[in-house]
Amino acid sequence: MANNTSYDGASWADQWDYNDDSNPFSRDSKKTGGDKKSGVEKTKEIASSGFEKTKVIATVGFKKAKEGTTHGFQWIKEKCQKKSQKN
Questions:
Q1: Basic and acidic residues bias: where (predicted)?
Q2: Distances in Å between the alpha carbon of 64 and those of 28, 43, 75?
Q3: What pLDDT is attached to residue 20?
Q4: Is the pLDDT of residue 1 over 50?
């Protein structure tokens, strides 16, 4: 039986890869540029920015709920005062 371990043809992935870069691992270094942050540092940065966004959204939501509640109580107060003035 013949041993066909050396194959000079293009693989399936090579045939369908439209990128000009022959080294697929060099693409990642091009994206990062001079940024040398580790994965943990990047994750912390993303999480802290997400936390800040969540904090702002929660604060705005709380203010809206507080205003709505205040307006609701004021409306009820006005309705009760009108009823008592009619009697």
A1: 27-44
A2: 44, 31, 16
A3: 62
A4: no
Question: Of 63, 45, 41, 65, which is closest to residue 53 (Cα–Cα)?
Answer: 45
User: What pTM value is reported for the model?
Assistant: 0.41
What's the rounded Cα separation, in Å, for the pair 67 and 73? 10
d(CA 22, CA 9): 15
Backbone angles phi, psi at 73, to 5 degrees: -65, -40
CA–CA separation, 73 and 42 (whole Å): 46
How far is the C-alpha of 42 from the C-alpha of 45, rounded, in Å?
Answer: 5
Per-residue pLDDT tens over the stretch 29-70: 555 555 577 888 888 888 888 888 899 999 999 999 999 999
**3 residue type, one letter:** N
pLDDT score of 67: 96
For 6, phi then psi, to 5°, come to -95, 120
